[in-house]
Amino acid sequence: MEISPAGWLSVLGGAGQAAAGGSVTALHLLQQVLQQQGVSTDRSTVLAPVLDAISRALSAEQVDQQLPGLQLLAAVIPETPAACFRLNYMQWGGQALGLLKADPAGPQALLAWSILQQIFLRVEQVVEEAGVRKEASGLLQRLMQIAVPLLPQAAKQPGQGTVGMVEAITAGARALPPAARSSCMALDAFCRSVIPAASTPQALRSALAQLYPLLPRAHSDALSWETSMQQLLATLHDGLDALFMGLDGSDGSQQARASLKQGVEGFWSGGKALGQAATQGQADGVRACLDTLEHMLTCSQPIPVPLPATSIFLLLTRILAFDDSPAHQGRVPPSASGYRQLLGALPGLHVAALQLLQQLLKAGGGTLRPLHASLSRLVSDLLRRVAAAGPATFSLTSWLVRVEVYKLAGAVVQAAGWAAGRQMNPTAIQAARLELYGHPSGSVPATAETDPLAKIAPHKKRKRGRGKGQGTQGGSNGAADGLGPGTDGAEGAGAAALEPWRRETAVQVAVLQLLETLLQVCGAVIPQDQRLQLDAMAAHMASTAFAAAEGLAAAVETGARESLAAPLQLAACKALVASILAPAPHSPAFLPLALRLLRQGLSCPDALLSSLCSSALLSLEVLLQPHATPPAPTRPLLAQPPQGAHPSSLPTSYMGPPKDGEVLGMPRMITEGRAGGASMQSTIQRPPVTQPVQQTLPGLEVHAPAPVWGVDSSDSEGPMPEIDSGSDMDASAETSDDDL
């Protein structure tokens, strides 16, 4: 079926608009249109008329006729096959640059920047092919010649196309760092002047935060990256000085600044004015600099770079240490309206600082070992601050901050090991009791004993009641989530009614993940009383979550709540499995409960939960039968085969336990994977056995089980534990390692 060019443009223009909206790809929409018209086609067949329609549209003289083709081209470039893209990308880029050169502020400029961005994103994937790097470098340099003269005007008055221009430059600098070297000075000055400015739009800040870490890559110099990082940290300190209005004291600021290199100056341009509007602009500038710092930590560099971990840690500690305590101490802020605005922006700064600490742990790895003790003390203090407030913490502390605190605690325990876990475990238990049961003592409300739905969030009604009088920080939480005053209405009123469930579920999932990490990392070294509390909480929350899931499944019109309860059920099940498998000097007290819940979870419709229950039941098999033979048969050791015979051709008479001094057989993956297996036989001699072993099966050696407590042979009294934890071995099994 032939379609006129005008018809193609109308169809393709609508498909391009839908694809740009993110609903479905343009080519998929075109295939659906053709199939509805009775034309069966595939992707390659659709692409030819698409490119022809784009070429016709771009060759038109009227701007209105060019816009559908530009929009469609921006949507089709990510889906174009590599061979087709390799043939056409230089032509597409040249046409986009021609439109920008003719009118950089016209209506087609935004689409032209988007096309160039998509081109360089695809170039990054095929840059190693022959000729692509050289051709694309020339295209990027032509782009810089058009974009760099526009930067001074964009810094003063950012327009609608400024974000698209920055995104196109970012894609080009990421794909071809050396080609952007000549423009780095102009781009660096543009980033310095725009990122912390109070009048910068948020979209432009986010785009520049991704561009700034790419500039040192063009020089491939560690000194350039270090200088950029030091200047960014100094800028953040200048911004915090202006934002905190001197209320955080001078000790923390001076100590943090002392960790920077001498003579480093920042590029803070947010001002130091007082007032509500000025404080909001300063808070936005500080958050933009924190986003830039996060990209600096996550952006890969072609060479090793020095990480100022101590300076970053002290900066983030300064942010987390600031709260509303100056007002309680009687200190008068310089601006009352600015101070209220600062308290409203403080939860967002705390969340950004906590997330940056997690990124610092990932980026630093083992080099952060000197900071592990300081990180443990910081996290313990944060957990203690949450637990000390009691039930009031639900209205005083943002739920987002609490979620990130628990995530950071788990990351620190995984990085620092059991030493950090033992230090923060008492405060973690108190905070977990508060979050899971609504009270530091861990007492469950009376309704939770009878109503399984209330067990998901025992303090749910209390949180719903703080709609308007939750203070400055609490009021900012709803605004951050896109909720206005009074959105916590009656149940069934829509998405707003599910917000308390979503918040409670997110916090409690983070708490259960922290408990799981504590049990996995330091379950064997924490005191017994604390271990029993962790085991009891994990078992009770798992039982409660399964009961709540059953209640929600039986209730009417609870599909959304049932989906919210699934993550909580999964996290509780993981914590219970970690509790059972963690080493302990006694048999697991909640093993029967765990087996019952895991068998129940096998039939759960949630694929993640059923998969977890299946693997967990297999892991718990060793606790049920610790001295049983493996469920899968093991390959017995081979006796010395005849000369020139392959092990796979040996009869069963040769299968038996090797004797002293005989040659051991090669592993199966070696003998069967190479020709001439007989010549590949190992010459490792089996050491002589100094103690006879008990043989129960042909070809299998089983040592006598050792007592758990390592008691003497003369001590024959006293009951033995049911589960062999393998903590100690007596003299009867001392030669087990030598035997193997």
General description of the model:
- The chain contains 33 helices and two strands.
- It is mainly α and 740 residues long.
- The chain has a domain at 417-461 and 498-624.
- A two-stranded antiparallel sheet has the order 1-2.
- A hairpin with a 2-residue loop joins strand 1 (694-697) and strand 2.
- The longest helix has 29 residues, at 336-364.
- It is globular, with a radius of gyration of 33 Å.
- The N and C termini lie far apart (75 Å).
- Mean pLDDT is 75; it is low at 1-6, 13-24, 444-493, 652-658 and 661-740.
- Residues 443-496, 631-656, 698-740 are annotated as: Disordered.
Main sheet?
A: 2 strands, antiparallel
Taking pLDDT < 50 over at least 5 consecutive residues as the criterion, the unreliable ranges are 1-6, 13-24, 444-493, 652-658, 661-740
| First-to-last CA distance | 75 Å
Strand content: under 5%
Q: What kind of assembly state do the chains in view correspond to?
A: single chain
Rounded average pLDDT: 75
Number of distinct helices: 33
Strand order, main sheet: write it out.
1-2
The secondary structure category is mainly alpha
- Tell me the overall shape: globular
Portion in helices: 55-70%
Total strands: 2
Specify Rg, calculated over alpha carbons.
33 Å
